[in-house]
Amino acid sequence: MKRPKDLLQQVHNQVWDLVKHLWAPNAAFGHGTDHAHRAYAIGMRLAEAESADPLPVGAACYLMDAGLDLTAGRRNHIARGIELAREVCAAIPALGEVSELVYMAVAHHEADNSLPPLQPPEVLVVRDSDTLDRMGSSGVRMTLTYGTWIKRPLHHPGDPCCEHRKPQLDSFTLDYVRHLYSLKDAISTQSGRALIPAKLAEQDAFITGFRERWERLAGRLRYVDGFDIVDKLDQLEPNGAADRIGEEYR
Ligand SMILES: [Fe+2]
Ligand SMILES: [Fe+2]
User: Fold this and answer.
1) What is the mean pLDDT of the chain?
2) Residue 31: nearest ligand to its CA?
3) Ligand 2 centroid distance, CA of 189 (Å)
4) pLDDT digit string, tens, across residues 102-135
5) CA–centroid distance, residue 54 to ligand 2 (Å)
6) Cα separation of 179 and 167, whole Å?
């Protein structure tokens, strides 16, 4: 659906002004304002390609994870997101005609949850935007940050990149990075699927770089967790693994 660009920008800015303070603290576990902005950028791109209405798509991208917080984490974040969406739509009259789409998009944004059939393109686009940002360099960085925050061990001692086991998501952060590969199956729009190869290549580059250095430097790095290991790798080898996980968001 075509809408005047300046109106879109204005409404989306209003939404952002109402919720940005909720996103900012969540940078501590990798879901800060950068995740919102990247998902929004992908959402706008996919909305155009999929002929989805960009008005609810942009609003929902700014709302979907606004319900996350430092104490409850992911628990009930969708229900809180829907509550916030109701408050925001009530405060911004221009969202009135698309408010139901905003609520539905927030409700179904998580790729880990099942998706009822026959969803409108706006819902699919928002879900794909969140999922695509959880993949590739951005997804690896979010996963590492989250793992460090919850103090999850970085990797299995004998199979660090989870190449010969089923991922143990609660046990090792790099097992979660392995799990990110399965997210590609959750992408449902054609334009979203077109972005998958680049995302997988970024994940491959991180894992290959990590494994090479782990094999060479394991003795010195075995007990270092999360970002520390990336920093340490950089100190030991300039242009090391940290460069491979998305310099633009550092
Ligand atoms: Fe979420
Ligand atoms: Fe998210």
Assistant:
1) 87
2) 2
3) 17
4) 999 999 999 999 999 999 999 999 999 999 999 9
5) 18
6) 6
- Comparing 202 with 237, which gets the higher pLDDT? 202
**pLDDT(83) > 90:** yes
- Please tell me the distance between residue 135's alpha carbon and the centre of ligand 1 in angstroms: 14
pLDDT category, 220, cuts 50, 70, 90? low
pLDDT of residue 33 exceeding 50, the answer is: yes
Closest CA to 196 of 210, 182, 209, 207: 182
Q: Phi first, then psi: give them for residue 73, nearest 5 degrees.
A: 60, -130
Q: How far is the CA of 109 from the centre of ligand 1 (A)?
A: 6
DSSP state of 163: S
pLDDT band at 81 (very low <50, low <70, confident <90, very high): very high
Nearest ligand to the CA atom of 129: 2
Task: Please tell me the distance between residue 175's alpha carbon and the centre of ligand 2 in angstroms.
Answer: 19
Give the C-alpha separation, 162 to 141, whole Å: 17
Sheet strands (E) in the chain: none
CA of residue 118 to ligand 1 center, whole Å: 21
Question: What ligand is nearest to the CA atom of residue 79?
Answer: 1
Give the distance (Å) from ligand 2 centre to CA of residue 35: 7
- 209 CA distance to ligand 2 centroid (A)? 26
Architecture of domain 5-129: Orthogonal Bundle (1.10)
Residues 161-172: what's their mean pLDDT?
94
Q: Count other Cβ atoms within 10 Å, centred on residue 237.
A: 15
**Ligand 1 centroid to residue 216 C-alpha, Å:** 37
Domain ranges of the chain: 5-129, 136-249
The length of the chain in residues reads 250
User: Strand, helix or coil at 170?
Assistant: coil
